[in-house]
Design goal:
Layout lengths: L1 E10 L2 E11 L4 E5 L6 H8 L7 E6 L2 E2 L4 H7 L1 E4 L11 H8 L5 H14 L1 H5 L10 H13 L5 E5 L7 H16 L3 E6 L2 H7 L2 E6 L2 E7 H6 L1 H7 L3
Parallel strand pairs: 3-8, 3-9, 6-7, 7-8
Antiparallel strand pairs: 1-2, 1-4, 4-5, 9-10
Length: 232
């Protein structure tokens, strides 16, 4: 479904990604783990067209990925960025409508209702400004807004960041539900333990390079991964 080969990206003279190769099959959860500054967010930004790679190839659904972000969304590859990035001055409903900008009329209203069924709290507060929501509620809104674009693959960047443990558990239950619904998930996380426990496959990114890749279950048992990312 997704094949990334020989990907390089830089910010000025700083190399952020160096010869990155990853793949994800349809119906999987694939996790990218690594420390802060490893290049995880840059990888997703390259895939969503926000950052232009300096080299490499990105194939999605058998075709070269378009260069422009709105065209990438149109292919079914959707990015939910780190830090939620909801539109704080817009209502919950309007945030969702922004996510569904590719669709119109009855289809859009149907998609809204599907999200409200998935997240009843968003329906209850649909006319409330997004900036007044709690961190967990904003994360739910950000994911829901991404789902409004009807992704074939959704990329989640640090969905557990800054959330209480109970909310983190709810977010990860949602991630599994998304996968069960038929949407492939590319998950970037510092919370390596949680990320690998829900994933089929994982990659370890260090200073811009993939240093290890394996099934998620194997990475959970890998001594080097356990010492570096799983608390021993």
């Amino acid at each position: 479904m997704l094949n990334v080969t020989g990907l390089y990206a830089s910010y000025g003279h700083i190399d952020a990604l160096k010869d990155v190769n990853i793949s994800a099959d349809e119906g999987q959860i694939v996790s990218i783990i690594g420390s802060n500054g490893a290049g995880k967010s840059t990888l997703l930004r390259c895939l969503s067209g926000i950052v232009k790679p300096s080299a490499g190839e990105i194939i999605f659904m058998g075709k070269n990925l378009p260069k422009k972000p709105h065209k990438i969304v149109g292919t079914g590859l959707v990015h939910v960025p780190e830090g939620r990035k909801t539109f704080s001055g817009l209502t919950i409903r309007d945030n969702l409508l922004v996510g569904g900008y590719l669709f119109k009329g009855k289809e859009l209203e149907k998609d809204l209702e599907e999200q409200y069924e998935r997240f009843p709290i968003l329906k209850e507060r649909r006319n409330q400004f997004a900036g007044t929501l709690s961190g967990g509620e904003q994360q739910m809104l950000a994911i829901s807004r991404g789902l409004m674009a009807k992704p074939k693959m959704i990329m989640l960047d640090e969905p557990s960041l800054g959330l209480a443990p109970l909310i983190v558990q709810q977010v990860y239950e949602l991630i599994q539900q998304i996968r069960i619904s038929g949407i492939t998930v590319l998950l970037v996380e510092q919370n390596a333990n949680m990320a690998l426990r829900v994933a089929h496959r994982g990659y370890v990114l260090e200073t811009g390079r993939i240093v290890t890749s394996d099934s998620a279950s194997a990475l959970l048992e890998n001594d080097a991964v356990r010492k570096a990312y799983l608390g021993g």
